[in-house]
Design a protein that fits this description.
The complex is a heterodimer of chains A (116) and B (111). Chain A is mainly β. Chain A is built from no helices and 11 strands. Chain B has a single domain, classed as Immunoglobulins (Immunoglobulin-like, Sandwich), CATH 2.60.40. In chain B, the strands form 2 sheets. In chain B, strands 2, 4, 5, 9, 10 and 11 form a 6-stranded mixed sheet that branches. Chain B has a 5-stranded antiparallel sheet with strand order 1-3-8-7-6, with no helix packed on it. Classes of the chains: A mainly beta (116), B mainly beta (111).
């Protein structure tokens, strides 16, 4: 079964800490994404990557950075965690558009981050 | 630009039908539909690419209008297992690769 694995299910961090969220996919997908999910706001795109070492800002990139050194791994970095970054973070991957007539995103189970 | 989903929430009895709508102010390249059960990852249901397209099966299907600005998800003779939050995700340009999601529709099925 194809999988997107997020390293932690729950995390509690202190304000000002540097936080790393890791995501690994085993499907050889080109695209990888980081979304945050908040009640009433749906899923909002933070960053995405369509190839190794390539990244593009999403709708809410402020306070975040990403790293993609290998095709299967996409990391989200909170440079200095703040309480307004308390949220559920979802990683997803997909085939590039040329191949995905009947395929969508595959999501990980999410990391619930609490910043205190 | 975030698509508008309606309704925000709906409660149905088992066996009843539901329609969830997703609309955009601009023509779209594609629409995706996902279902998320509580505490779980969103799961892909289907993608619609062509104006006027209808897709799915008897129980869960979706349409994409000719102008490619509105999609509807149809849940027929609902079952308890259909409960969850449904999201549409829209792609605005060919090759854009990223989805913008609506705020979701919470569907509760009661026996």
């Amino acid at each position: 079964d194809v999988k997107v694995t997020q390293s932690s299910r729950y995390l509690v961090k202190r304000t000002g800490e540097k936080v790393f969220l890791e995501c690994v996919q085993d499907m050889d997908h080109e695209n990888m994404f980081w979304y945050r999910q908040d009640p009433g706001l749906g899923l909002r795109l933070i960053y995405f990557s369509y190839d190794v070492k390539m990244k593009e800002k999403g709708d809410i990139p402020e306070g975040y950075s990403v790293s993609r050194e290998k095709k299967e791994r996409f990391s989200l970095i909170l440079e200095s965690a703040s309480t307004n970054q308390t949220s559920m973070y979802l990683c997803a991957s997909s085939l590039c558009f040329r191949y995905r007539d009947n395929y969508g995103y595959t999501f990980g189970s999410g990391t619930r981050l609490t910043v205190v | 630009q975030q698509p508008v989903q309606s309704p925000q929430a709906v409660i149905l009895r088992e066996g009843e039908d539901a329609v969830i709508n997703c609309s955009s102010s601009k023509a779209l390249y594609s629409v995706h539909w996902y279902r998320q059960k509580h505490g779980e990852a969103p799961v892909f249901l289907m993608i619609l690419l062509k104006g006027g397209e209808q897709k799915g099966h008897e129980k869960i299907s979706a349409s994409f209008n000719e102008k490619k600005q509105q999609s509807s998800l149809y849940l027929t003779a609902s079952q308890l297992s259909y409960s969850g939050t449904y999201f549409c995700g829209t792609e605005t340009n060919f090759g854009n690769e990223k989805l913008t999601f609506g705020t979701g529709t919470r569907l509760t099925i009661i026996p």
